[in-house]
Amino acid sequence: NLNFNTIPGGTVTDKAVSLGYTVNFLNTSSFVFSYGYTFQRMTQKFNPIDDGKYITFKEGEEYDWNNYLITYQSDQRKLFKYSVGSSLGGFYNGTNSNINGEINYRYQPYGSLSLRFDYNDIRLPGNYGREKLFLVSPRLDLTFTDKIFLTTFVQYNKLTENVNLNARFQWRYKPASDFFVVYTENYLPESFKSKNRALVFKLTYWLNL
User: Is this model's pTM higher than 0.90 or not?
Assistant: First the structure.
């Protein structure tokens, strides 16, 4: 896979090259090995951890790095399934070690429960920043009938120090026509004090013309 991005004038700002090999087993599980090369030319100041706390990369600076990735996905036909992956290598002028995955359990025909996680150990030189970042996202999908559904999603992000709750109720009152009620709220993780909240209603109707 090759990907190049330019800005007006033809200057290349991003290049990404990846080469991988996938093994698909007869039981639907899979194994992936890949190598990646990334190039970035900064179009504005930026720090991947915290612009206000650490030294920022300056506009016009160029960085390139290599990394290696491995991912395993279990048998997708099972009620309990999972995936886990890891990548190691460079990251701008430093390094990053990542591990991520997801576990999922289907309770047929009523719904499913899943948990996603992502951990990064970013180590940049000097005062560019060093942080261990963690994100965890549980999700619950419930099917009450063939027309009424509920999805609840919670996410904790250590980088932004935020807990987000998102709950969506869906009523499919006609084919391709839905009524949604969505509630979302953001919390401080230490005290669970609310930062903001919103309640949104949405109605869609399919027209055949």
Answer: no
